[in-house]
Structures are given as C-alpha cells and as structure tokens.
Write a structure and sequence with these properties.
BirA Bifunctional Protein, domain 2, 5-stranded mixed sheet, elongated, 3 domains, alpha+beta
C-alpha cells in the first residue's frame, strides 16, 4: 500500500463534524441577528479581480503588497478575496443596488484568504462575518453597525469585551496627519523596527498599529489625529459618541486606532477581548465614504464591520461558552436478516418524511455491533427489526438513554416520534 501523501494546505484547516455544528450554530445566530436589524444576506464570489482589491484596500497595504493569493488566466488577473467589503461594494455598483431606493443593509458570512504566517486564530483561509450599510453618512448608521456587531457577542455570552473608538477623518485630515507623522518619525527612523521603517514613507499611519516593542515608546508620543480633524469630522464623531451614550454602550477612545485598510474615513472602531491573548481583536470596522466612488460607482457613503469566526471560537473556548449541541439521530434502525434490511430502507424513508432523523447499519454487521454503533452515535431510540417483527408487524422501540423498550406498530412509532 502506498503511503498517503496528501494534506491540506498550510494554514487551511478542515472543519470536521465534531466542530462543524458549532459553526452552524454561530451562522444561524448571526443570520437571526441580521434579521432583527433588517439586514439581508449577500454572497459574493471567492475570486475577484486583482485591481478591485488593490484599488479598494490600497496598493500599499500589507494585504495587497504581501498577503494575496493571485492567479492569472490569459490577460485576466484574479485574487482570492482577502476581505469582503470591496467585493460587496463591487456588487453594489455592478447590480445598481442604489436604484432600489433608500439605504442597502447587507451582511455576509464566508471564507477569506491571506498568505500570511499562520498562528492561533489567524489562518490563510479564515472566515468572517460582517455587514455593510450603504447610502448614508448619518452618524446613526455608524451606531447601527456597531450595535449589530456587539449584539452578536452579547447573544453568545461574551461579556469581557472593549469597544475602541476613533475618527480617522476625511482625506484632507489624513493628508495633514500623515505629513505630521512623517515629520515626527523621520528624524528617529533608525530607532524604528524594520517593518515600521518600510511603512514610513508610504503608509506612516500603519506604524501606529505596530506591536514591535521598539516602536511603542515612539508611537506613544506621536501626534494624534484628533488634532487634525476638520470641524465636520469632529462633529460627526461627537454625534456618534452621543448616540452610543444614549444606548449605554461603553467605549474607549483610542487615538492610535487607524485600522489597516486605506478606504476608511471618519469613524473607526474595534472590538477586543483579553481572552484572545496578544491577538486580541474580535472584529472591527468603520466608515468608508469614498470606496464606492473609487471603484467606479456614484458617490455612496457607507459604514461596515467584519469579525473573525476563528477568533470568536477561541474566545468561546476560553470562556467555556457552549455553541449549540451536536446533532444525533433520533432513530437508529437495527436489523436482523436481509428482509429486515430491505424493510428498513422503506421505513427510514417514511420516518424521515414524517420529520424524524434516521440512520441505520450499512455494513451488514451483527446485532451487537449495530447496538454499539447506535450508542456511539447517541441515537435517542433504536428500532429493532427481525423476521418475527416483520411477521407480527409489531416492532421493538428501545429508549437508549433509559434502557426501556416497548412493542409498537409502525404507525404508532411514527406517531410517538413526531409528537
């Protein structure tokens, strides 16, 4: 026998049945919450045009410059989507969703891809859920998005979280702020980490995100963007905070929170939890009023968030929070003989049509092996069928947890199981 030599790609993890039910539970909870907030699901392709992502996220970001999975087919260039805001914006423009009237409230759940070094809570194929509210620059939309995001974590039971908040201003504010950062960091560039030195000329705001120990003392004394906000941006930010106060949502103002993508304007926010360790971000987002116009659409202000499913799983595990329960068959049909197996195929179909979940033995094993398998699968009942049961038309229904059984007609069994 040849040795098995295939395995999943580094940083791309199989989700096995013993974990998959947790994902289903979370996805259902997210969809239910989206319905409560009036958001509709959108599903975009995993492949997008490289230029869309580069223009949307920013050519100088780490994602575009270092972390994309790219492909070429003829003259076409594609990328496995590294995030979903730019794809949703593309769909909004391509399908003229602005013509439907009012704002568009869209949410998504799905896999994203980044070619970075895998670590706990950060894989090359990872999963995000998020939402986009497109078509208004009203601060109430920012708060609606934040409330939607936080409501999901509340429902799950995660309480040890902090909402960090900042405003990154408009393009004019950012331009002035970037120049101030250049003037501040350039004289001490030799003291910066190698990563921050690379970012200095092209994207100095990213230095504020640095986790490198040599950068922190310099970052702590760096200029703050709040000193460069226009009056309009300052007023917008104050209104967002006032709405959050009205909803009793606590937050921490973090002047160093700038987010990692170029399309953000005004409000930026992040939800963190110490239960995640050093990589403490659960999710975040902000306003991106210029993105849709940047990719060819009409000016359409928007705000959104994205959260990582894997990070959420880690937080739930750390807090010992249950995520649903595994699905077990309601009935396991145990058969003796060929006629009983033939009968079981038809009976299973009838039981399923009536609404029961049913499985059976598919390998002609012994009664003992079948009963063991029924226990392993934690079936609620075992329906035992042999020649005598087929002749009398009375079948043994065994309650597996209580170790009790009774003899019933098939019609009575259906009635019993579907009460």
């Amino acid at each position: 026998m040849s040795q098995f030599k295939y395995q999943s790609h580094h940083g791309m993890v199989d989700i096995l049945p013993e974990e998959a039910y947790k994902w289903v539970y979370l996805e259902n909870l997210i969809r239910q919450t989206a319905q409560e907030f009036g958001f509709s699901e959108i599903r975009t392709p995993i492949l997008e045009q490289t230029e869309l992502i580069a223009r949307g996220i920013g050519a100088l970001t780490d994602i575009v410059s270092k972390e994309m999975f790219t492909f070429e087919r003829g003259e076409d260039k594609y990328v496995l989507r590294p995030e979903c805001t730019a794809p949703v914006a593309r769909a909004y423009v391509e399908h003229h969703l602005d013509q439907k009237g009012g704002v568009q409230k869209l949410f998504y759940i799905g896999p994203m891809f980044r070619a970075e070094r895998p670590q706990k809570g950060r894989q090359r194929q990872f999963h995000q859920f998020g939402a986009e509210l497109i078509g208004t620059d009203d601060p109430i939309a920012d708060v609606e998005i934040i409330r939607f995001m936080m409501r999901i974590y509340e429902k799950i039971g995660i309480k040890n979280i902090t909402l960090q908040l900042n405003s990154v201003g408009n393009p004019e504010s950012r331009k002035a702020y970037k120049q101030a950062l250049l003037d501040y960091f350039r004289p001490m560039s030799s003291q910066l980490s190698e990563v921050s030195r690379d970012r200095l000329e092209n994207n100095p705001m990213r230095i504020l995100d640095s986790k490198e120990p040599e950068d922190r003392p310099l970052v702590d004394k760096a200029p703050r963007i709040s000193d460069f906000l226009s009056e309009e941006c300052r007023s917008h930010f104050q209104t967002v905070k006032a709405y959050l106060d009205d909803l009793n949502i606590t937050y921490t103002e973090n002047p160093l929170l700038v987010r990692g993508l170029d399309y953000y304007t005004r409000t930026a926010f992040e939800l963190t939890s110490p239960d995640l360790g050093s990589q403490d971000a659960l999710g975040g987002g902000g306003r991106y009023d210029l993105l849709i116009e940047e990719i060819g659409g009409k000016p359409s202000p928007a705000v959104g968030f994205a959260s990582g499913m894997e990070r959420l799983m880690i937080a739930c595990e750390a807090l010992n929070l249950p995520l649903g329960t595994p699905e077990h068959p309601q009935v396991y049909i145990i058969t003796r003989g060929d006629e009983a197996r033939k009968w079981a195929v038809t009976a299973a179909n009838k039981l399923r049509i009536a609404g029961a979940s049913v499985t059976m033995d598919y390998a002609s094993r012994s009664i003992k092996a079948q009963m063991k398998d029924a226990n392993r699968q934690q079936a609620t009942y075992a329906l035992i069928v042999g020649d005598s049961e087929l002749e009398s038309r009375m079948f043994t229904l065994r309650n597996m947890s209580e170790s009790t059984e009774e003899s019933l007609s098939f019609e009575s069994i259906i009635e019993h199981l579907t009460k």
